TrEMBL record:
<dbReference type="Pfam" id="PF00249">
    <property type="entry name" value="Myb_DNA-binding"/>
</dbReference>
<keyword id="KW-0805">Transcription regulation</keyword>
<dbReference type="GO" id="GO:0000976">
    <property type="term" value="F:transcription cis-regulatory region binding"/>
</dbReference>
<dbReference type="InterPro" id="IPR001005">
    <property type="entry name" value="SANT/Myb"/>
</dbReference>
<dbReference type="GO" id="GO:0005634">
    <property type="term" value="C:nucleus"/>
</dbReference>
<feature type="domain" description="Myb-like">
    <location>
        <begin position="9"/>
        <end position="61"/>
    </location>
</feature>
<feature type="domain" description="HTH myb-type">
    <location>
        <begin position="9"/>
        <end position="61"/>
    </location>
</feature>
<keyword id="KW-0539">Nucleus</keyword>
<dbReference type="GO" id="GO:0006355">
    <property type="term" value="P:regulation of DNA-templated transcription"/>
</dbReference>
<feature type="compositionally biased region" description="Low complexity">
    <location>
        <begin position="134"/>
        <end position="143"/>
    </location>
</feature>
<protein>
    <recommendedName>
        <fullName>Protein ODORANT1</fullName>
    </recommendedName>
</protein>
<keyword id="KW-0238">DNA-binding</keyword>
<dbReference type="InterPro" id="IPR015495">
    <property type="entry name" value="Myb_TF_plants"/>
</dbReference>
<feature type="compositionally biased region" description="Low complexity">
    <location>
        <begin position="159"/>
        <end position="171"/>
    </location>
</feature>
<feature type="domain" description="HTH myb-type">
    <location>
        <begin position="62"/>
        <end position="116"/>
    </location>
</feature>
<feature type="domain" description="Myb-like">
    <location>
        <begin position="62"/>
        <end position="112"/>
    </location>
</feature>
<dbReference type="GO" id="GO:0046394">
    <property type="term" value="P:carboxylic acid biosynthetic process"/>
</dbReference>
Amino acid sequence: MGRQPCCDKLGVKKGPWTTEEDKKLINFILTNGQCCWRAVPKLAGLRRCGKSCRLRWTNYLRPDLKRGLLTEAEEQLVIDLHARLGNRWSKIASRLPGRTDNEIKNHWNTHIKKKLLKIGIDPVTHEPLNKQVSSQESSSAEENFPPKANNDEVLNSDENSSTSPAENSSSCEDSILMDSICSDESIINTLWFDETLLNDALWDIAPKADNINNNDVGLPNWEDNCAWLLECQDFGIHDFGINCFSEIELNALQQTIGVEEKRH
DNA sequence: AATTCAGTCAACCGCGGGGAC
DNA sequence: GGTCCCCGCGGTTGACTGAAT
């Protein structure tokens, strides 16, 4: 019989989201918060499936998202995490605040994969494509490869099983890569151990006084993201329906607009 | 200028996990 | 324990864009 469709296919719109739909979704979530996604389209007046709404929100509209290409440090972190976790993009994404699994997956497939292949590393196994590497070299590379054993303890046993790290690098470029990864160890450890980063509550819709500037780990702040929303979308805050913003949010948005105007 | 090709990324699809009953 | 429902995940697709011819 097969599974029931996630929503009534009739009358459900597909394809790229329009500005109007984005506005409706943002307005709804800022007003009501995230609730049952299945109910969101109906309540928000959207002819979309709940899944599509969730995806649009989590991958594109969320105010805590960083925009733009992954930084060098983030890229190295992704490589390291992929070596440990495999294609578990959501797990990887949870270690990179402000990045989505979709974004990381896309970046992996379009950029990192090629990069690794170029320097002779199999992007699946993280082992050198040329297996003729002396054990000496591999052991020296291993010494440098983070995280250390104690980090592995954090992982579930099944997370260890998938692949081994790119441990046998031999080329100069490989060692540069390794050095780069090692230099990011502090970042990796911070992200690895700081479970608070994984807490969804970190990004509250309404900015609280003490988290507006809480950007120590690269979390985008509320203003930055509002700036993005206002810059990159063809609509302003008034289009959202002013009522959906609290006074604090409005102040933040207005400050942002002011800053942005000064910049340009 | 027109066409082709490759790269990028937003969005969709199907599946599995987990909670509720 | 079985079934249903919802959510989230990972793989894949296809539209769009810019470069190359």
